[in-house]
């Protein structure tokens, strides 16, 4: 059996600070990595940052920094955040690293030599948020990008293209026959998409528009399209093409993403791999969105929750538990502070924490904190073991299917039953009767179960599990299934975190652990209760303060908001009066693509005066119909009591030149 497991997260754009959506994917990957390590797999867990592209260049510019300065800073913030959230990745990849550039250029040259790319002129709706041309189907009814709720910009450019259509039949067939995409409704979505011809993929960006990217090795005037560069990180991370072990990991590659980036991962990437002669990855795991209200949590919508603030208030394990417990993998889930608090108080403090506290303090008071020997087992003791084991088994089945919420619910049935068992068997009554042997047997049974809960929950609650396992003195004595010195990829700092070397799921069903005579150490309450009223009041106070500040301040917009307005120079090619509308002129402009603009300036300008003039337009204003004519933008003009004047550049500029 192949005992390798390669798991990746998307590499995150550095134009946004890490938020709860990023944290969710990364926590899922971390939990899976830990789970597989405990099953004896050699795990390689890759995460990192996507640092090229237009969005990043703009974000750097907005802060007055060079792109390099900017990406270094934000990549560090991502690393620090993952460290604080206990993310145990094996390698952090950055697309601006030399190692990655070499891989991208190698792949580009290989595909170019194979004749996969061709030069062509293209025009269409370009979304700067997605960094790609969108098809009409990807626009909502208002003509906006469905994900970014922003109007795309109409662009016309000469670029290199990759003929995806050539591979559509192969991909359709492959995905229909192999269960590569999970959950299966995303596979259906991709198969549906593959029913229609695939537009060619534009793999370059002219340097005249964007220089922050990896140069095409066969044409110095272009850089690589950010997605083409980014997807290859999954190969760079494991040492493609030079390190011999990359193929072993690749054969077991699992990519974790949210549905926003399904198309690049399920269509572009497999086709890139096929063209390169590399087998398609093993699995693509796709999850839904964390929502705030009904909207996706995202930087562009300005509704993000900081995972660090949350974990500072509630604890890292608590946040990890909530995220894994409250989202059904594949579907959207709404973030809610009261639900988070409820999970902490009900599941962690009441059910689990309380079971641990009362059992361990009872052991300390009555058995000097030492594990007593077994007495005879009653049918109730056996029933308890069966219930615990069945919960553990269900957990082990559901977890690798990514049904974390079900896995945890199953395990919690066992935890809740342990509380019922201790109440029913009442060891305190046995102690009062002087029957220490019976009380000891009940306690031992529960403590062994607690050991199994802690071990099983290590992928979800790594900190409290380690605290608990060390209190139970289980950690140092556990022989490991995992060899301790694996360094298959020399460039990776550590493939196996040291703590995991002592842990293995094989101890889950061992009722003799901890052994009789083991001294149990004290550990404080694992999950303190949260004062819901206090937290929610504080939250309301902060919100009210923010609102008051907003009201007091003049209504500023941020530089990012301003940059979303696409102001451009446009040359008037033609102008005429609109029949039946005294105030309207119809202009045909070049910016540089041809557009029609309907403007209310007929009272101030004769059409002939305007022909040949350069004006400034808002190019990404949603197209609107005026007197039956579609206006694709708005011209800028100043107006006062003396009339109206259109804004013109002080010197002649190329049509399409950006204004800002
Ligand atoms: N850089 C690309 C990915 C390239 S991978 C070769 C990118 N970056 S991103 O910063 O926008 O990250 C997108 C990913 O962040 C999602 O696929 C998901 O993993 C995570 N999430 C971002 N917002 C999210 C939610 N609101 N909810 C859940 N996950 C979210 O796309």
The small molecules bound here are: 5'-O-[(L-methionyl)-sulphamoyl]adenosine
Percentage of residues in helical conformation? 40-55%
Name the strands of the widest sheet in spatial order. 3-2-1-12-13-7
Q: How many alpha or pi helices?
A: 21
Q: Could you give a short account of the major beta sheet?
A: 6 strands, parallel
Number of strands: 26
Proportion of residues in β-strands: 15-25%
Choose one word for the global shape.
elongated
Spans where pLDDT lies below 50 across 5 or more residues: 477-496
SS-derived structural category: alpha+beta
The mean pLDDT is 90
What does this 3D model show about the protein?
This protein is α+β, with helices and mostly antiparallel strands. The chain is built from 21 helices and 26 strands. Strands 3-2-1-12-13-7 form a six-stranded parallel β-sheet, sandwiched between helices. The structure holds 5'-O-[(L-methionyl)-sulphamoyl]adenosine. 5'-O-[(L-methionyl)-sulphamoyl]adenosine binds next to strand 1, helix 1, helix 7 and strand 12.
